[in-house]
UniProtKB/TrEMBL annotation:
It comes from Dongia sedimenti. Residues 576-610 form a coiled coil. It is a multi-pass membrane protein. The keyword Transmembrane applies. Residues 203-241, 610-680 form the PAS domain. InterPro entries: Biofilm_reg_signaling (IPR052155), GGDEF_dom (IPR000160), Nucleotide_cyclase (IPR029787), PAS (IPR000014), PAS-assoc_C (IPR000700), PAS-like_dom_sf (IPR035965), PAS_4 (IPR013656), Rev_trsase/Diguanyl_cyclase (IPR043128). This is PAS-domain containing protein. The lineage of its organism: Bacteria, Pseudomonadati, Pseudomonadota, Alphaproteobacteria, Rhodospirillales.
Amino acid sequence: MISTGHVVLELIQNVSLIALVAIGYASLRRSSFLPKPLVEIGMGLLFGCGAVLAMALRIEIAPGIFVDGRNIMNSLVVVFCGPVATVIAVAITILYRLLLGGAGALSGAAGAIAAALVAFAFCALRHRHRFRLAAGSFLILGAAVVAAGTLAFAVLNPAYSEQSFVALFVPLLLVAPPGTMLLGLALQNEDERAALQARLREQANLFETVFRSIGDGVVVANAEGEIVLSNPAAQHLTGVTVVPGGKPPRAGTARALKADGKTPVPIEERPLVRALGGLATTGAELLFPDAPAGGRLLSVTGRPLTDDLGRQRGGVVVLRDISPERVLQNTIARTERRFKEAVDAMENGFALFDAEDRLLFYNDGFLNAEQAAEFGNPIGHTFEELTRAFAFGKLSAADAERNPEAWVKWRMEVHRSPPETPVEVLWTDGRWMRVTERRTADGGYVGIWTDITALKLAETRLRDAIENIPEGFMLLDADLNLKLCNRRIRDLYPASAEAFVAGNSLEHILRLGAERGEYPGVSSPAEIESFIRQWMARFRGDRPYFGEGAFQDGRWVLVSHRKTAGGDFVSIRTDITQQKQRERELAQLLEDLTAAQAATERANQELQRNSSLIRAITDAVPALVAFVDKDERYRYCNEEYRDIYGVDPQSLVGQRIVDAVEPEIYAIVKPQIDRVLGGVETSFVRPMIARGVTRHVEQRYIPSFDADGKVDGFYAIAWDITASHQREQALSREALTDSLTGLLNRRGMTEVLMDQAQRWQAGEGGGAVLFLDIDRFKQINDTLGHDVGDELLKVFAERIRGVVRASDKVARQGGDEFVIVIVALEAEEVAKRVAQALLERVRAPVKIGGRELSISTSIGIAVVPPGEAVSYLEMLKESDLALYEAKAAGRDRYALRHMGSVAGASD
């Protein structure tokens, strides 16, 4: 039998262990120098060591039956310390139990894991139902841990009897739940204490923050007259400082004067001293000359401090700096004087009217000395009186000359309800003024007059440039309402031209054109609505749009539409009717080619009312736009230079064209520059080298004239036509090439002969035309088939290429007939050598489709003497006659004629 005293002693030891773990937990929670990861590791080690000690202090409640508190540790570490500490504690428990060995080692390890899992389930239930940790919940947790451990033991030890499980379960149930409750309540108490301290510290910090942040000074003294508290504002205004741990200053020690700055204030009359005596002070004005902020005039309010029983506990004063209020009148006076000086120094005109519309301030920009002398003192006069003076005086608006009363009425309406955008007025002396008007908060009026004559001149020049570009141009605002357009856009849309007026919406313009039959396939109301929705959707997006549009009369335009950086839209229309017609013509000539779409994107300058908007417009144009002065120096380049050349446009400003482009390019453009600087607009196509790539651009130079009509530079606009140029070249080459042999076709040779005939007539040297075919080709073609015949023609063409010179032109006229054009001073000798070489080269056997063929050729040569006036038809005729002579002489030879006379034949 186990004595009761022995069991009680072991229980006391386990309770001591619980207390030890609780003390360790509190120490780790209170440590402020350890980082959180180390605290979690420490908690794991603490509860792991606690489990080890619990196993060492096991209680023998019956012979051979032991219980311990290891799983108390393994469950509560989950509840209070988190997963990291849980893993460490459970690992230490399992390792130690395995180290002890014995039959129950595996069951003990499984019990530790089961205790942790039960605790995790307990935490999940608590998180879901949010119940408070208390004695009952800890007892339930302990009982659940005992049940889980016993179940694990039963599963791993099925050989034990039911009595053994009961003998183990009951003692554990008596020991583990109370132990879990005791340790859990101790840990819970420590957590609540730590949370309470944290809240108290937070409140103390909040109070100190608020106290130190108060703008007014606050000074607190205790009942003994010692200043125990003062915030930074009080220290700054009075110089009274409370040093922690130092001797506190006494109330009334700071030097104070009355508001006159001369009379000292007796100590007994000072607000803090009065407050200590139980007397309140309201709004006393004192000067503290020795404050760190300098002499400051303060409004001081004092109150005594009493406790709940009405006993005197000290006093408090609140100090407010009223120095600025004393100097406010002087400051206002100085501000008004400086404001008047600033107004007089403004370059723009300025006028300020009161709520009754009478003039308060003005400067020379609004009314100069001469006008003021003529009018008299304008101060106090109403805006309408001054407006009439402008309308009927020496200086009047251009519109006022026709009807002064109507102009005054309009001006007063604008004045009473100022628009968001400034008003522009043209004076009769040629100056433009931009008037910006705003109403003040008190109902007054502020007006600013800005001279924009120079800007208007620049706008006029830009408008001229836009009017002279060959494309239709529109500038639309963010809501797709028309702001600006040129004449060309109206020419392109004659049916809806009257709708191209500033302020009209794009939808209205499209609708008018559709209703008047301007667009093909758009006639019914449903078709019109669908057409408008389609084009409005294309134009509303932020992404650029490029496409084509057709007119009812057969014309085509290229549509380019993109958004500017300022939120407006630039829309350009280019007439591509001729390109479309050319595509159709090329498609007819080449049946195996589809119509090529010629698209040329051109960019232009646009007019705006200020330089930033002008730059935004030109930057949005998909073309190179620049202004060059008469010294051939760039003065402006748009953003397209960055996209094309990869350079900052500003880096080109100031450079001369000769230094900025390649020498071969400058040699091309120099004559055109001289032409435009002579006042003549010019347009041409030239190559352009950008980033090592050669492109083709269509270049337009537009002269710029100064006020005296002299050329002061020119606008350079270039748009990339590389794609269309390459397509045209490719289509031209294909139109002139024989598809079977790759030689020139009949049309290509005709152009060569026509060009060469002009050169020969001009005396540029002699030449010869060779006309040749394959002997008996029709017999081969008819007996062996056209496929063999085509292969034979390819071989024959290759043998001709292998004999002629690089400068000679070779063409297949049709069938098996071929023509060679030779240009040389000794043309007759060259032609004979070529003909003889061809005869020998063609005689070599030909293998086609497993057959070996022997062929020959007959050649007719027409020699053209230098300066001979012959047509290309005569050249072909003479060489054809020579060919028949060679065939008549037995084939496999050549015959030579001198343009009308036969020279003979030769093998």
